[in-house]
What does this fold into?
Amino acid sequence: MTAAMNRSALPIVVIAGRPNVGKSTLFNALTRTRDALVADQPGVTRDRIYGRAVIGDSEVVLVDTGGLDPDPDTLVRGVGRQTQFALEEADVIAFVVDGRGAVTSEDFEITSRIRQLDKPVVLVVNKTDGIDADTATSEFAALGLSEPVPIAAAHRRGLDRLATMISAELPEQPEELETRETRDTIRLALIGRPNVGKSTLLNRLTGDERAVTADMPGTTRDPIAAEIDRAGRHYQLVDTAGIRRKRHKHEAVESLSTLKAMQAMQQADVVCLLLDAGEGITDQDARLAGHAADAGRALIIVFNKWDGIDERQRKTCLQDAGEKLKFVAWAPVVILSALHGSGLAELFDAIETVYDAACLSLSSGRLSRVLNKATEAHSPPVVNRFAAKLRYAHPGGNFPTRIVIHGNRTEHVPPAYQRFLINRFRAEFDLVGVPIQLIFRDSENPYAGRRNKLTPRQVKRRQRIRKR
It folds into this structure.
């Protein structure tokens, strides 16, 4: 298993600076996305956020980083390490400062650290909207870096000049970059409550300190993307923020993190729902499993921190999974320890199994035969004096796996009988870990809306009756 984070040999531009100077706003402006969380408070970004951008005539990998802060707090030190990792792999560094403030000691300290790397640096003076740009930039000339570039990232002002300055520092690119076939790529989302070990698992899978980890909930805020190759397959991993139970009052950043986590799940092929084996299965865990099933994603239940519980707790966990998560009983269960790396082989086996099942092409003939055998073994029940007549089936797509069933009076198929049919299809096609949706279509009545044409004899008879 190797980390595939070379970004296809594209040059890497890293955005660095103190907290709350607008690095994430600049990242979103250059990538034309909203991938990085933006809020009017310092320290929102904690991990390295990667995106692609076209700067000048060149495509680059853009990296948003947390602020470089001398605060000795453990979490902040982790953020600083993430920034340092990004700076070491950078081809060009965009050093962002706040044009509405004065030069600070932190700015000089960051400048000193950047100089030690001996890499091209573009000094970016942000937040210059509504003020004199020359005055704002002149003070930062004391840092002794490149000519300051005034911008207003929130309003996309000055970005063309910034692109010109960055383009001049980019290394020459090869004429042909390596491309990757997307059909062998599995998009994997790690979801779960806060502090269940998602970031630890991401770091273990990539073999790199790709995400900040701390023994406190809510450490991860932005979705963190990473790529790895294993056994001839390419994986795109996304570590998401922990999703708490909804409350009346939410911190704004946490609400945005939850929204992005749900979006990452919607865009994934396979969802790994991480549970803390020491805490057991909570109502929030069950809700997240329901969200994954409703989204039509292939699902794997992952018990993390398995090494930290005794045999009695392990048995209780597995029993609870059968009871509290019985509505997703089709999802395989994997036990592992992200901290120590045990159970990873079983996790990858489960990922490949459910992904292959989710991509399976179903034939209309075989689906219809399974449907006919099921109705012969157990015919649809009578509902409101009517029983549905199910005739044939055909595939309706993947992610989720849809099966379209044609017949008459299909509105009378009760939920219990739909579950019976789903179980028959699942068993026949071995659709483990895959949610199945049934779509019913009534056959059209060729005589619907038509009136019978009367014969001449019937017309005369009706006329005689009216005369009476």
Notes: The chain has 13 helices and 18 strands.
